[in-house]
Amino acid sequence: MNYSDFKIALQEVPGEISICFTIHGCKLHCKGCHSAYLWNKDKGEKLTLKKYTSILEKYKSLASCVLFMGGEWFENELVNYFKIAKTFNYTTCLYTGQTQISKNILNQLTWIKTGPWIEALGGLDSPKTNQEFKELKTNKILNHLFQKN
Fold first, then answer.
1. Cβ count near 83 (within 10 Å)
2. pTM to 2 decimals?
3. What is the pLDDT of residues 6-54, one digit of tens each?
4. For the chain, which domains are there?
5. Among the four residues 49, 62, 82, 144, which has the most C-beta atoms within 10 Å?
6. In whole angstroms, what is the distance from residue 81 CA to residue 5 CA?
């Protein structure tokens, strides 16, 4: 599994400071995608277990959530990485353009953002979006946390 980079994100998971990994290999190719560079799975750098755990260790007193932007196409590896994040006491989140995700992945998540990018409908900050941000424990859709008024 290759990643482009990681960043500390403050807005993608409300109330959380997230370590956000952007993963290469997306097959959806949504029209108007702002991250088309992620379509090629061979680009980026290998996210090794050593690199991953080093990042989690470095930020464990600063961040509270591990967020993957994509990666569900590497199901076994992603499940393993979420399990590791939980051993560090991080919450977990996946942003995906898909509408259905395997139970193996869902079982490791605190939150999930689903739905392909449709430019005319906008993202989570749009009241007419097709995308959903859901807390899995309660099954509550939390899109309102991204929208103004």
1. 12
2. 0.93
3. 999 999 999 999 999 999 887 876 676 767 567 677 788 999 999 999 9
4. 2-146 (3.20.20.70)
5. 82
6. 16
Mean pLDDT of the chain: 92
Which residue from 128, 99, 93, 133 is spatially nearest to 113, judged by alpha carbons? Answer: 133
Give me the helix-helix angle, 75-87 and 49-59, nearest 10°. 30
pLDDT for 75-94, tens place per residue? 999 999 999 999 999 999 99
DSSP letter string over 111-144? Answer: EEEE----TTT-STTSTT-S-EEEETTTTEE-GG
Burial 101-140 (b: 16+ CB within 10 A, else e): eeeebeebbbbbbbbbbbeeeebbeeeebebebbbeeeee
